[in-house]
Design goal:
Length: 499
Amino acid sequence: MSDNLATRIRANQQKLAAELKPQYDFIVCGSGSSGSVVARRLAENAAVRVLVLEAGGSDDVPSIIDASAWPVLRGSEQDWWFRAKANPRLNGRPIPMSMGKVLGGGSSINVMVWSRGHKNDWDHFAAAAGDNGWNYQSVQQIYRRIEDWHGVTDPARRGKGGLLFVQPAPDPHPLAAAMLEAFAAAGVPTFDDQNGVMMEGDGGGAISNVCVRDGQRQSIFRAYVYPYMDRPNLTVRTRALVTRLRFEGKEVTGVEFLREGKLHRIGATREVVLSLGAIHTPKLLMQSGIGDEAELKRVGIPVIEHLPGIGRNFQDHFMAPCVWEAREPIERRNNLAEATAMWKSDAALDTPDLQSFMVEAPYASPEAATVAPPPNSWSLTTAVLRTASRGRLRLTRSDPRDPIDIDANALDDPADLKALKICVWFCRAIGNSASLRAFAKREILPGPLRGAELEAFIRNATVSHSHQTCTAKMGRDAMSAADHRLRVYGIDRLRIADG
Ligand SMILES: Cc1cc2nc3c(=O)[nH]c(=O)nc-3n(C[C@H](O)[C@H](O)[C@H](O)COP(=O)(O)OP(=O)(O)OC[C@H]3O[C@@H](n4cnc5c(N)ncnc54)[C@H](O)[C@@H]3O)c2cc1C
């Protein structure tokens, strides 16, 4: 990015902020992975004025830019660092949950793996929404448009020349190849592209697709919004905490937000788009009177629309990582998560439900690793992708500044514990296999545990993968919040576009 553009952007945004308008055509709340795309696509039409409101600050931070530095962002100023409430199935642990609080949201603090949904997931969304525009075939065309892919040629599936630079992790650490070799020996075949044909079948392993270029993070904000911030029709306000929607009857007319302790009100003549992520989108909806009637009454919020599904159906990927000490110090390359594998806990399933990443760093909950693993450790993550447990988010009080109660409810359904045990057991076998022997001085976690001991380990070791979703879902049943065009049921001029 040229210095010229950076100077123009700074001057333009200062001017736009000084002349903040009483109303815009569109207000996009949240500048994360989703909000960034929505804001840019809207602003491509020079005739519409777009305002983006983001609670976090600048993403011009060395640990955001350096692709290998993401571990230090956990719990940082750029992380909401939510805490799910104490869970008896996790030995009473209140586990932390990372979500980006910064321009770019999750895309500025995440691990930068470009992971497409499986074919069956997209076809499921299309069926739930009643719209083939969400099926795999349709969405594949959208993926192709987004990507500037620098891996094996696959024109039917992969795009060239899009806004987002994606490549297979270049010159990965030898641990990555060793992991894939071990999975292949265990019957999980290796593919040359994580997001090609591999996402249409029974699973496989591949070098990770990463949004990393020359060692630097390529966030969705930087790809989509930043290059447009010298335009007169795109205003981006940071440190602006959206607190409420404003209405005339059931029509949204604008938003309220807090900035530097002051409450502001701004109108939207066309639409408000909520892209606050899976925890704060339902929170804002409920604060504004859209949610389960009984819940809203409990905290004294007048009901605008009774939508009982808002805040329910919370889903995440939970994992209990396995850790080994390496024989040598591990050189940091790319995003430290350079290989992945997906497979099935039960051959009868139609879609892979387990996933592991090679993480070239120690990754363990403090309760599982009572003695911190040495820095030259590597980990295999053990995620259950298709969880059966469902959590719930509830307001603690009516004041928007009050925290939200997060009942993540991990491992509530015994099927999830069963799948996680299978995943941990399989990853132990991978980590202790001949392919990885040259890199493994000793297994640190979990060791050869079985039965109740393995279960106790999992309850202490389970952490969030930071993939929170589904709390204001698209669909057609009574628990859905939005239709297939992401319009909130019963409310005019309001859409939800996020995870
Ligand atoms: C540590 C970590 C690692 C991850 N690794 C990967 C990975 O490697 N690959 C992958 O595909 N996914 C990964 N994810 C998940 C991925 O980043 C998220 O699924 C994705 O960013 C969600 O997008 P979103 O638009 O729903 O929300 P977000 O990207 O979270 O964006 C929401 C935005 O809204 C802002 N906001 C919230 N409340 C308010 C408010 N009241 N007012 C104003 N602004 C507000 C937030 O600050 C944030 O910027 C990871 C996530 C984390 C946190």
